[in-house]
Each structure stands twice: as structure tokens, then as C-alpha cells.
């Protein structure tokens, strides 16, 4: 009998979770039972992310070897990220202007959610200027950075350590071997954890549906459809053109990443697939030094799905309140989102927090966010998929830009 593939197992878990959540809608006991299962799965993934990023970066950087080539790689990566995220914001604004998802929405029909916890987070991050964000990339205590999962600080330390290992030549060989062994061991652990992914997905989606129900979607149906349509357009057209330019096929990439996309969609967490997409990008020919730098950095600077959503959500709230935003205000919104979406990377509920810090500055009522929080989880699932595809493609683009040959996954399977 043929074994059911992981993608199908996760999909079955997703469907069963939706059915269970719909049956027990409004029952708090289902959350008490399922949430711990979902949390254990997410914790298992978070447990392995930091060791994988550190070990892969140290091996990759020590192999690349010098500050000049690394600086060039960093410059190209950040330039690419800035261009793509700006395009994502512009696409979001164009979609919202064309389809007007917020026009005619009756606010009295909407369920108002509590946004106080996000306001607290936003106030804490607001007190950090963008200069502070830059300063905080350099950790004072690496153990603390590891414990907090502070990805930018971890990347900075790993790059510096990798350069140090490269500089000491022969004496650094055992250190490289140690980290290479660590990376291989952690990828093995990842593959074992993925075996329980269908169970984790079943629990997480069951909790979501039992909490919010499927009825909560009806008043905001137009917003959900607009966001999903924009996300699909962005992946197929925008990222499709980028992939075509560098000689790759976006549909082949989507087929290659189907397991990770279903998992990311179900859990609404890009972190759950970070180890797997790093492993898969290496398998098709992206060098370890590039995947281990580009993909984790992309998790802070290349959140295409999140920035696209933020642009649509901002205009949705303005339209819902009947506020007309002129072209000047929309350009201001683009510029503010370009900065804020980078400045508070790594904050939980980052899309909502970015919107909180953005809306007020362009004259849109912040309270409007309370109306869309009920469907935010569903929108987050779509954002996550775009972020996964965007960062995987970034690794391919930068690898090609650096002159490496990247195969498609059919060639990889043949090899």
C-alpha cells in the first residue's frame, strides 16, 4: 500500500480540524484540550530554529571566507528585499483602490475584538526608534539573544563567528566540522518533528474555528476574498516575473514547496517551515552560505505577504469609515510602511502592531483594527504562504545573482 505523503496528511489534519472546530463552535473545552497539542508542535519547531540558523551560517560564512564577499552578498540581499516589499505595498494599495473592500461595510454587523494587548506591544516598540533597532542587531549577550530567539542578533553573531573561524585557517577546521555535524543532526530532528505536523495542524486549526466560527467571515467576506486574490496575484504574477527573469518557474517552485506551504498555511507561522525551506533550497543548488543568510534575514526584512496585507487593511479601514485618501496620503502610507514593517520585525502579531503604529500617522482611526481582528488568523494564513514563497525565491535569486546554478526540483530528484 502506498504511503500517504506528508502534504496530504497535513491537508487531512487541516480538514478534520475545521470540521471539529465547526462542530464544537463556542465550546471553551475544545480549546483547553487542543491548544496544548498545537503549542507543543510549535515549541518543537522553535526549539530547532536557532541551532539550525547558527550552525548553517557558521559553516556557510566560514566557507565563503571573507568580509568583502559577505558585504556584497548582504548589500544585494537587502536591495532585493527593499524592491520586492515596496512592490508588495504598491500592489496592496492598487488592489484596495480597485476593489474597495471596505466600502459599504456596516460596522454594526461586525464583531469588535479586543486590541489592548497589541496596543501595549505597539507602545513598547514605539519607544524603540529605528536607530535602536539597528543598535540591537549587535547583541551584548549572545546567550540572551539565543534565548530570546532574536534572529537579527543571532545572524550578526553567527556571521562574525564564521568570519573568525575562516580567519584562523587550519585551526578552524574542527569547528567547521562540529557545526556541519550539528546542522545535519538538527535537520534529522526536523524530519522527525514533521511526522507529527498533521496532528499539530489539526489542533491549531480546530482551536481557531471553534473560537471564531465560520459565520464571523460573512460580514468581512469581501476583505478576505480581496486579500486572498491579491496574495495569489502577487505570487503568480509579481514573483512569477521575478522567477522568470532569473530563469526559474514559479509553478515548479510552488510544487516543490507544497508540504511547507500547507504547513505554513495551517499554522499561520513561517517559523514552522524555516528549517525545511533552508534544507530544500540547498538541495536544488543554493549554497549553504546564501540560504543560511538570505532566508533567516528575509524573515525580518522580506515579509511580502505581511506588507501587502498591511496596505490593503489600512485602506479597508479608511473606506469603512468613509475617509477618502488622496494620492499624497497614499504615497505617505507607502513610505511609512516601508520603514515600520522593517523596524519592528520579530514582534508577535507583527502585522497588527505595524498597522497600529502606521494608521494614526495618516489619519485613519486605529479602532478600525478591532473589527478585522476576528478574521486576522485566516488572513495571517495567506500572508504566511506569501512570506514562505518570497523568501524561498529570494534564496534562488541571490544564488543566481552570485553566479551559482540552481536546478529545478525534477532535476534534483533525478540527481
From TrEMBL:
Does the record bear Repeat in its keywords?
A: no
Which Pfam families would you find in this protein's record?
SDF (PF00375)
Q: Give the UniProt entry's GO cellular component terms.
A: plasma membrane
The Gene Ontology biological process annotation of the record reads: dicarboxylic acid transport
Matches recorded under SUPFAM superfamilies = Proton glutamate symport protein
Query: What is the protein name stated in its UniProt record?
Result: Cation:dicarboxylase symporter family transporter
Protein's membrane topology: Multi-pass membrane protein
Location in the cell reads: Cell membrane
Give the organism the record lists.
Answer: Bacillus salipaludis
